[in-house]
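S1.2 Input.
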Amino acid sequence: MLVCYTGGGTLGHIYPALAVHEALLETEDYSAFWIGRENARERGAVEQAGIPFYPIQSGKFRRYRSGKNFTDLFKIIIAFFQAWALLRKRRPDVLFSKGGFVSVPPVFAAKMLGIRIVTHESDATPGLATRLNSRCSDVVCIPFYGSEGSLPANKVVVTGNPLRKELFLERDLSPFHIPSGVPLLLVLGGSQGSEEINALVRDTLERLCSLAYVIHQCGEADYRPLEHKNYVPIPLLGPELGSLYRRSALVVSRGGAGTIAEILLFGCASLIIPLSRATSRGDQVDNAQRLVDKGAARALLGEVNAEIFLQEVEDLLENPLKRGILSRNAQELAVTGSAAMIASLIRKGE
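S1.3 Output.
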């Protein structure tokens, strides 16, 4: 069985698909390739997993007036023909789309070629790319009941969000020198909009480090090697992330669907600071609001400053009972076996 994966825009579109790839590796005669945008980090993650990567043009539909909507239209047309040529040559049995605008031309090309299509949406509300892709897809996977929005009901299957196996392996945390008896505050900046979280941490660092041992993923673009007692800044965390989730007393993060799924599965108490609707389509706000409504996280949904941020962090770090309630409610929302479930849906087309 040959599977073509497509998607990109952030690593949040890449890692869930790689989790499905891991689940399919046990399938007899399974092989794969990837159609994505030319991006070093995305291409590197895919190729590291042993999947051949084919870059195509990437254009974006914008909801506001912009000259780029005109120029990107030509990129989208070019991308469609690039994807059509690749798919016609390789003839995969299934195309699995993880979303992002780079996935739209391959999905439409696959539909024209009669290739079976499975699409996955990670967020609480489907994005435009998923809504477009759903018109061509045979199956549309969503993270939980109620997240289908306007997607065609006859195609929707609730699968949760797939997570990589490496997160569940126990890793050596001794290089982080985490002291015993001190709560661990895990801060996950590092992707879109990490500067706000990074600034909040740096502005309150003195107080945070008196309350907890702080491991701060800053992202490569905004990394600063600050030296402070009880503080470890790092550009990007790797396979040790799962073990840090288990060890943490509190996680501070954006509201991306992948991180939310990890927080739920590891049962972490968390403070979510989503990208606002002013700077995004609002998917992170919707993701965070769902957790708040279920009592599974705290969130800062309005204007955020250092004082408000510190007040919330202090309240949770100083109250194990409140953290315990968030942790239990988070675990109740977690969906397990997502990658295996999606792999099964892909294999159904054999």
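S1.4 Remarks. Residues 67-90 form the longest helix (24 residues).
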